């Protein structure tokens, strides 16, 4: 019998997530929770920096706040889906009515998670979206 422990660095990652959130504490909190759940997460504090990263490499999910400096989350989501029509989008916001407004041209398949939310709900929703 072999009791060797597998190093945590070699665990299988469930998917690549780009996280755009301008609140530093919220970004760290969400990033850590998703990494602990097995996701590979790249975090950015504004939409423009996140968009530049999306242009460099593919991600399976864009998890973005709506209200951010330099480029808001809705514009980021629009541009992300132009780059990759298969990318999944989830908005995390305290302003769900803004995301739901049909005049904003948000990607129609985007999910909305309203703040405040439980981390377990976020991880479950992300897992559902990436499994679909």
Q: Calculate the terminal CA-CA distance, rounded to whole Å.
A: 38 Å
Largest sheet: 5 strands, parallel
Strand content: 15-25%
Cα gyration radius (Å): 15 Å
Query: Residue share in helices?
Result: 25-40%
- N-to-C series of helices and strands: EHEHEHEHEH
Query: What is the mean predicted local confidence, pLDDT?
Result: 86
User: What is the spatial order of strands in the main beta sheet?
Assistant: 2-1-3-4-5
Give me the count of strands. 5
| Poorly predicted sequence stretches spanning 5 or more consecutive residues | 1-11
Structural class: alpha/beta
The backbone outline, from C-alpha atoms, is: globular
Count of helical regions? 5
Top keywords for this entry?
5 helices, five-stranded parallel sheet, 5 strands, 132 residues, alpha/beta, disordered N terminus
Describe it:
This protein has 132 residues and is an alpha/beta fold. It has five helices and five strands, in the order βαβαβαβαβα. It has helices at residues 24-36, 47-56, 73-83, 96-100, 119-131; strands at residues 16-20, 40-44, 61-65, 88-93, 111-114. The protein has a five-stranded parallel beta sheet with strand order 2-1-3-4-5, with helices on both faces. Strand 3 (61-65), helix 3 and strand 4 (88-93) form a beta-alpha-beta unit. Helix 2 (47-56) runs parallel beside helix 3 (73-83). It is globular, with a radius of gyration of 15 Å. The model is unreliable at 1-11 (pLDDT under 50).
């Amino acid at each position: 019998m072999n009791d060797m422990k597998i190093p945590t660095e070699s665990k299988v990652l469930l998917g690549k997530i780009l996280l755009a959130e301008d609140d530093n504490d919220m970004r760290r909190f969400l990033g850590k929770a998703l990494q602990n759940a097995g996701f590979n997460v790249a975090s950015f504090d504004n939409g423009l920096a996140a968009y530049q990263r999306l242009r460099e490499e593919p991600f399976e999910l864009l998890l973005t706040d709506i209200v951010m400096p330099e480029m808001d989350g809705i514009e980021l989501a629009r541009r992300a889906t132009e780059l990759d029509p298969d990318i999944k989008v989830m908005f995390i916001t305290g302003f769900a009515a803004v995301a739901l407004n049909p005049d904003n041209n948000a990607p129609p398949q985007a999910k909305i998670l309203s703040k405040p939310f439980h981390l377990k709900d976020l991880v479950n929703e992300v897992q559902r979206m990436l499994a679909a």
